[in-house]
């Protein structure tokens, strides 16, 4: 299981990272809200452990931004703020679980495993980013309720991008998904498919959902890209 830990306390962070590693989990650790949000966008975490009182952006701000970007990764808030009001507020803002400090490490492990199982047991057949919707059961793509006709390759590409909504997807990742090959050097083929897909899903809409992040890859989101100065359209 891949865990993203966003926690500013040095002692607790080191302890959690070590304990999770000993439990057979991979733990990426960030110590402030801004870098935590960036990691959320770029990495494929199975569960996020999110502290509430963080530098730069507090936990709820990180959570709100992630949900607005379409990120659906399970989030467990880990906080010293333990009143009923605090817990209710966290859950209402999109958290999937809430654990109050101090806590028992075995309970944290159990909660992480439960969140991971819940995600695996209910595979989503419908993906939505802003007004763009893809339905796997009907193979239908719509934006603002209007049907969009895609080729099988374009549909598969869009499904992959939507499953990683809010995250930067590299050309190598696209190649691996579409052709089960690692040939990132041949960029023009990927760019052609991206360009054709963008023309179909963004045509007639003032706010594009498919961005190109220079030097990094592609980003599907209904929010601004992580670095607007480094993004451009093909």
TrEMBL record:
<protein>
    <submittedName>
        <fullName>Transcriptional regulatory protein CusR</fullName>
    </submittedName>
</protein>
<dbReference type="GO" id="GO:0000976">
    <property type="term" value="F:transcription cis-regulatory region binding"/>
</dbReference>
<dbReference type="GO" id="GO:0000156">
    <property type="term" value="F:phosphorelay response regulator activity"/>
</dbReference>
<feature type="DNA-binding region" description="OmpR/PhoB-type">
    <location>
        <begin position="124"/>
        <end position="222"/>
    </location>
</feature>
<keyword id="KW-0902">Two-component regulatory system</keyword>
<dbReference type="Pfam" id="PF00486">
    <property type="entry name" value="Trans_reg_C"/>
</dbReference>
<dbReference type="GO" id="GO:0005829">
    <property type="term" value="C:cytosol"/>
</dbReference>
<keyword id="KW-0238">DNA-binding</keyword>
<dbReference type="InterPro" id="IPR039420">
    <property type="entry name" value="WalR-like"/>
</dbReference>
<keyword id="KW-0804">Transcription</keyword>
<dbReference type="Pfam" id="PF00072">
    <property type="entry name" value="Response_reg"/>
</dbReference>
<dbReference type="InterPro" id="IPR001789">
    <property type="entry name" value="Sig_transdc_resp-reg_receiver"/>
</dbReference>
<feature type="domain" description="OmpR/PhoB-type">
    <location>
        <begin position="124"/>
        <end position="222"/>
    </location>
</feature>
<dbReference type="GO" id="GO:0006355">
    <property type="term" value="P:regulation of DNA-templated transcription"/>
</dbReference>
<dbReference type="GO" id="GO:0032993">
    <property type="term" value="C:protein-DNA complex"/>
</dbReference>
<feature type="domain" description="Response regulatory">
    <location>
        <begin position="2"/>
        <end position="116"/>
    </location>
</feature>
<dbReference type="InterPro" id="IPR011006">
    <property type="entry name" value="CheY-like_superfamily"/>
</dbReference>
<keyword id="KW-0805">Transcription regulation</keyword>
<feature type="modified residue" description="4-aspartylphosphate">
    <location>
        <position position="51"/>
    </location>
</feature>
<dbReference type="InterPro" id="IPR001867">
    <property type="entry name" value="OmpR/PhoB-type_DNA-bd"/>
</dbReference>
<keyword id="KW-0597">Phosphoprotein</keyword>
<dbReference type="InterPro" id="IPR036388">
    <property type="entry name" value="WH-like_DNA-bd_sf"/>
</dbReference>
């Amino acid at each position: 299981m891949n865990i993203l830990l966003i926690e500013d306390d040095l002692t607790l962070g080191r302890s959690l990272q070590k304990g999770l590693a000993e439990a057979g989990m991979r733990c990426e650790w960030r110590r402030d809200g801004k870098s935590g949000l960036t990691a959320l966008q770029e990495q494929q975490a199975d569960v996020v452990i999110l502290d509430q009182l963080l530098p730069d952006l507090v936990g709820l701000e990180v959570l709100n931004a992630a949900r607005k970007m379409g990120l659906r990764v399970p989030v467990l808030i880990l906080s010293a703020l333990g009143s009923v009001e605090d817990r209710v507020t966290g859950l209402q803002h999109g958290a999937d679980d809430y654990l109050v400090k101090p806590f028992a490490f075995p309970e944290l492990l159990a909660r992480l495993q439960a969140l991971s199982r819940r995600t695996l047991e209910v595979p989503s057949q419908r993906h939505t980013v802003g007004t763009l919707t893809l339905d796997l059961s009907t193979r239908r793509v719509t934006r603002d309720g209007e049907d969009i006709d895609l080729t099988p390759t374009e549909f598969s590409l869009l499904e992959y991008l939507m499953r990683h909504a809010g995250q930067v997807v590299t050309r190598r990742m696209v190649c691996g998904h579409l052709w089960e090959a690692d040939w990132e050097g041949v960029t023009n083929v990927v760019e052609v498919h991206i360009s054709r897909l963008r023309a179909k899903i963004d045509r007639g809409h003032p706010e594009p959902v498919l961005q190109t992040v220079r030097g990094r890859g592609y980003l599907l989101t209904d929010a601004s890209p992580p670095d607007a100065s480094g993004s451009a359209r093909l």
